[in-house]
């Protein structure tokens, strides 16, 4: 099969069909409607075999992690998904792998209402690059640089689960399936994130580790943060696997694709109600402060945080 046959067989017409797309895949460019009351948010990520997913991963896992990693960036802005471009490089065209890849991509596309509008296929080492596009009301995008002093810091989800899941995979254990699932199949906070607009001041997605990503938000906003470690939710699954190291997985582990956001005091109760309505786990883990840097409060003792997380180089 050549690349055109692959596109026709596996990718043409799959997934959600977005009303803002005038011309989708098949032409030299996709064409999208512009809405004057909205702004466009766009982001791109590349996932490489052996770096961002194990070399023997199924097509479904590769598709899932690749699209969610990009959707999470839209979530951090409070953006509503519209469309995405896919660039797939692979060493050979294996029908069973491509079928699983395309099926999972289509499922996620429908679930999160984001349309595949084009891309590219080439031969080479396995890598997936996705570019996502989403919209926010004009001037309303959640930024890393908008946090203020004396705001509450929240996180979504169960931090550390995915990082522990990767460790379980690397150790080739046949147990701890919930941890492995958190790594292979993360869930982007699309609906919850859209509702943060007008309530949260600043937001960032947690992909390289909670403290590492929080430090980016603090640096861009020109503030600091104090984190009460006892307020960080640690799942039973994580504690059963990691024991006394569970907190380290939550603080420093990557691949969560959850959200960290700051909220003015007047919206804290509103955020809690929103989380109940959206059935989203949130934890209030600290507050923003004027003094730059991040401090951890453990057993009543304040210590400077060792800010570390995933880096490529």
Provide an overview of this structure.
The structure is a single chain. The mean pLDDT is 95. The protein has 2 domains: 135 residues, 60s Ribosomal Protein L30, Chain: A, CATH 3.30.1330; 161 residues, PurM-like C-terminal domain (Phosphoribosyl-aminoimidazole Synthetase, Chain A, domain 2). It has 10 helices and 13 strands. The strands form 3 sheets. Strands 8-10-7-11-9-12-13 form a 7-stranded mixed sheet. A 4-stranded mixed sheet has the order 3-6-4-5. β12 and β13 form a beta hairpin. α2 runs parallel beside α3 and α4 crosses α5. The protein starts with a helix and ends in a 9-residue tail after the last strand. With 313 residues, the protein is α+β, with helices and mostly antiparallel strands.
Key features?
313 residues, alpha+beta, 60s Ribosomal Protein L30, Chain: A, Phosphoribosyl-aminoimidazole Synthetase, Chain A, domain 2, 7-stranded mixed sheet, 4-stranded mixed sheet, globular, PurM-like_C_sf, thiamine biosynthesis
């Amino acid at each position: 099969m050549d690349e055109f046959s692959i596109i026709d067989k596996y990718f043409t017409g799959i997934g959600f069909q977005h009303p803002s797309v005038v011309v989708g895949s098949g032409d030299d460019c996709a064409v999208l409607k512009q809405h004057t009351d909205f702004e466009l948010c766009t982001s791109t990520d590349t996932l490489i075999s052996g770096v961002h997913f194990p070399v023997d991963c199924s097509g479904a896992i590769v598709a899932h992690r690749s699209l969610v990693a990009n959707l999470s960036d839209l979530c951090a802005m409070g953006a509503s998904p519209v469309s995405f471009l896919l660039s797939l490089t692979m060493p050979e065209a294996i029908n069973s792998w491509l079928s699983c890849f395309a099926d999972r991509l289509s499922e996620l596309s429908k679930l999160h209402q984001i349309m595949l509008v084009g891309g590219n296929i080439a031969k080479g080492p396995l890598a997936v690059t996705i570019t996502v596009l989403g919209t926010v009301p004009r001037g309303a995008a959640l930024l890393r640089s908008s946090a203020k002093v004396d705001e509450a810091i929240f996180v979504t989800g169960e931090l550390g689960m995915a990082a522990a899941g990767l460790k379980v995979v690397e150790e080739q254990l046949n147990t701890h399936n919930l941890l492995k699932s958190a790594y292979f199949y993360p869930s982007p906070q699309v609906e919850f994130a859209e509702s943060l607009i007008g309530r949260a001041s600043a937001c960032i997605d947690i992909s390289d580790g909670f403290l590492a990503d929080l430090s980016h938000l603090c640096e861009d906003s020109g503030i600091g943060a104090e984190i009460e470690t006892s307020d960080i939710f640690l799942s039973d699954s994580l504690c059963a696997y990691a024991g006394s190291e569970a907190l380290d997985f939550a603080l420093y582990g990557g691949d969560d694709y959850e959200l960290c956001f700051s909220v003015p005091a007047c919206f804290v109760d509103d955020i809690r109600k929103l989380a109940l309505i959206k059935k989203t786990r949130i934890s209030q883990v600290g507050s923003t402060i004027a003094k730059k840097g991040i401090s951890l409060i453990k057993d009543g003792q304040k210590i400077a945080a060792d800010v570390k997380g995933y880096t490529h180089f």
